[in-house]
Design a protein that fits this description.
By secondary structure, the chain is of the alpha/beta class. The protein has helices at residues 36-65, 67-80, 83-96, 100-116, 121-141, 164-169, 188-195, 206-211, 233-254, 281-286, 298-303, 310-323, 360-365, 367-380, 396-415, 433-437, 439-442, 453-460, 479-494, 512-518, 530-538, and strands spanning 2-5, 7-10, 13-20, 155-159, 175-180, 200-202, 217-221, 226-229, 270-275, 292-296, 328-332, 385-390, 425-430, 448-451, 498-501, 522-525. The longest helix is centred in the N-terminal third of the chain and has 30 residues, at 36-65. It binds phosphoenolpyruvate and magnesium ion.
Length: 544
């Protein structure tokens, strides 16, 4: 038995087989070839396989997510047959006498750059499509092609690190747990694990990855951050007992379903849930959340290979609103950038991405993207009780601009005869120190604040949330953060706005009493923490 230790980011025990996550790295070597015709035949064969794969994916997408969403695979099939693209591959093989993989990779780079340089956002997005189809052909050219996710059956997925885009691409039904060699507890991958109620351990170290093999039995203890590989019988027995006890405790918490979030002295608070997509709704309902306090809408963009259309977004937002049957649903507009990168946005590489072009900064400079999302949100608003929230706010002028775009969108919908609700609440995230400090100026402009403690901590303490080496300096209970939250709460209430907390700190039950004393109106946590926080609230007495 080997034992390793990292940091647990979701408390639960998983027992199962290891699957080492294989990232599809297509390193293409240039080799000289003699037989040009044979090389061209290889390309034809790889294209045939790619075409069949795309047609299968298209059929599956058509059945599962409808025609609009499936269309992208049809476009990929058309691109496979594009004359210019194919001529370029053939001519590189003929003139440079190089292998097919190299010719496809070079063509891909040339075409991708050409698309990326175009003015039109739609054409720019084709750059990612060319790379996508070219990678598929290259994968099918090589006999040792790797599985994108490397996961089959129910597995403990072990990786060096997982980007949010990789995490969302995993088949969640088959993931028992995540273990990563690197990573930090406030990274979006850790947050995703919590949202999915999946035991997860991060920062186990590199040795772990070198030691483990696919198919080995392992135990993940998300409470202690320990992972046992090839456990002995004694450990297996003990951990099976721990797993059963945990399940029992979680069952007991289920008895709190339907009960109020009220302290012993009668103070009430709302407990909502955070979600990353429509898939999480089941967990929200199961755990009896009073609403959705944060729908991270960017995951819709991360899951897609192109900008989600207004109709696609409308379907997703409508589904969430209808499922919540009149309970509040707060959807945050796109928060792309920093660690959440999407190929088709073609964002430049930045020295300091967390301080860079992200979230509202993208939306305010790319009105096409912003307006599409707002149109979908307002159109969905007739199906439930919607709040729209804007991330990464630092100034009054940003909120003024946002409100002007919202008014423009509503006006356009009215002119087009499309329905929307007039009762949509507008709120902003308080996740920069600037927003907290000027919360007296911002509060009169909005209906609510929601404190994003993950970013607020990062920016207040100058601690990169992605960097595991400085986690010990990243004191989320730091008085500076708690004072900023208190300041925002006071300013919200003085101006008739309400205030919630939707960062990970909202689920920290050692702070529940402090948040209640601050007058926080709502705590929004991963679905699996709703009942735990309810339990804490019901055992708190503010009169003491
Ligand atoms: C936060 O920053 O606390 C937050 C809720 O947003 P995200 O974690 O998605 O950046
Ligand atoms: Mg944030």
């Amino acid at each position: 038995m080997n034992k390793y230790k990292g940091k647990g980011v979701y408390g639960a025990v998983a027992i199962g087989k290891i699957s080492v996550y294989k990232r599809q790295e297509l390193s293409v070597k240039r080799t000289r070839i003699e037989d040009v015709e044979a090389e061209k035949k290889r390309v034809e064969r790889a294209k045939e396989i790619s075409n069949q794969e795309l047609s299968d994916i298209y059929e599956k997408a058509l059945r599962e997510v409808g025609e609009t969403n499936a269309q992208i695979f049809e476009i990929h099939m058309m691109m496979l047959e594009d004359e210019d693209y194919n001529e370029s591959i053939s001519s590189i093989i003929e003139t440079q006498l190089v292998n097919a993989e190299y010719a496809v990779a070079l063509t891909s780079d040339n075409f991708a750059q050409m698309f990326a340089a175009m003015d039109d956002a739609y054409m720019q997005a084709r750059s990612a499509d060319v790379k996508d189809i070219s990678n598929r052909i290259i994968k099918n050219l090589s006999s040792d092609s790797t599985n994108m996710n490397g996961v089959t059956g129910k597995m403990i997925v072990c990786a060096d690190d997982l980007a949010p885009s990789e995490t969302v691409a995993l088949d969640k039904d088959n993931v028992l747990a995540f273990v990563t060699a690197y990573g930090s507890s406030n990274s979006h991958t850790a947050i995703l694990a919590r949202n999915m109620n999946i035991p997860a351990i991060i920062g186990v170290g590199e040795d772990f990855l070198n030691d483990i093999k696919d198919g080995e039995l392992a135990i993940v203890d998300g409470f202690t951050g320990e992972i046992y590989v090839n456990p002995d019988d004694e450990t297996l027995d003990a951990m099976e007992r721990k797993q059963a006890e945990d399940n029992e405790k979680k069952k007991l918490l289920l008895e709190l379903k339907g009960k109020e979030n009220v302290t012993i002295d009668g103070t009430k608070i709302k407990i909502f849930a955070n979600i990353g997509g429509v898939d999480n709704i089941g967990a929200v309902l199961l755990n009896d959340a009073g609403g959705i306090g944060l729908f991270r809408s960017e995951f819709l963009y991360l899951e897609n290979s192109d900008y989600p259309t207004e109709e696609q977004q409308l379907i997703a937002y409508r589904k969430v609103l209808e499922s919540m049957a009149g309970k509040k649903v707060i959807i945050r507009t796109l928060d792309i950038g920093a660690d959440k990168q999407v190929d088709y946005f073609n964002l430049d590489k930045e020295e300091n991405p967390a301080l860079g072009y992200r979230a509202i900064r993208i939306c305010l400079t790319r009105p096409d993207i912003f307006k599409t999302q707002l149109r979908a949100l307002y159109r969905a608003s007739v199906y439930g009780n919607l709040g729209i929230m804007f991330p990464m706010i630092t100034s009054v002028s940003e909120v003024e601009k946002i409100k002007a775009v919202c008014d423009e969108v509503k006006m356009e919908l009215k002119e087009e005869g499309l329905e929307y609700s007039e009762n949509v609440e507008l709120g902003i995230m308080i996740e920069t120190p600037a927003a907290a400090v000027i919360s007296d100026l911002l509060a009169p402009m909005v209906d609510f604040f929601s404190v994003g403690t993950n970013d607020l901590t990062q920016y207040t303490l100058a601690c990169d949330r992605q960097n595991p080496n400085i986690e010990s300096f990243c004191d989320t209970h730091h008085e500076a953060i708690l004072r900023l939250i208190q300041m925002a709460a006071d300013n919200a209430h003085k101006n008739g706005a309400w205030i919630g907390i939707c960062g990970e700190l909202a689920a920290d039950t050692s702070l529940t009493e402090r948040f209640l004393r601050m007058g926080i109106d709502e705590l929004s946590v991963s679905p699996g923490f709703v009942l735990k926080v309810r339990n804490q609230v019901r055992n708190t007495d503010l009169a003491k």
